[in-house]
Amino acid sequence: MKLSFVIPAFNEQDFIGPCLESVMRELAAVECEAEVIVVNNASTDDTRERALAVPGVKVVDEPRKGIVRARQAGYVAARGELIANIDSDTRLPEGWIKTVLREFERDPDLAALSGPLIYYDMSRIGRLMVRSFYAVGYLVYLVMHHVLHAGAMIQGGNFIVRRDVLDKIGGYDTTIEFYGEDTDVARRVSREGRVKWTFRLPIYSSARRMKGEGLVTVGLRYAINYVWVAVRGRPFTKDYKDIRPE
Q1: pTM assigned to the model
Q2: Could you give the C-alpha distances from 100 to 136, 215, 218, in angstroms and in order?
Q3: Are 164 and 209 contacting, i.e. CB atoms less than 8 angstroms apart?
């Protein structure tokens, strides 16, 4: 199976390098046909140039700002059977690709796979709070999915979807700006096949949003939008703030 990485990037010159280094390191450790697509999403810094400086990376320009529009542009350009959606401030841990390929190869009915974020630049107490948030979130997901039969669970910035499933659901909903985009994908993909959440597929990510807006605030916002999209089909929060280095 060919694996297509799609990495949205808006003014990510400080993060895109380490992200791509981790992807290339992991690809070198496996026998896998793959492509790496960085979607330059209306950047005004050196994001595009730094991405192109990495051999083997393809850059797609999407001038309409928005992470969902960037994911859609990458999906349209991708040619792999599996679309791996990661963010430009994430870094793959050792064995990430091997886990992805193993899960999809042994389960033909698996439509999407996802796992948690581990914040590499967060304090130990903050990480413990995030783990608690995931534990509660997983319990809410179990109730929503198995009792209310509403949606599934996907973590934005760390999920892989079969290309043919994305084709069936018409790609990503570009009317969603930010919050709830992952839950929307999970909800629609779950109608076409199995969506699996596993704590065995973590990915490292920056905690800049939590630091910028507060861990509790961000956690509650994500929780509200998860329930809102799963039940009502649209996010509760319409606006969002870009968190970037000064």
Answers
A1: 0.94
A2: 25, 29, 28
A3: no
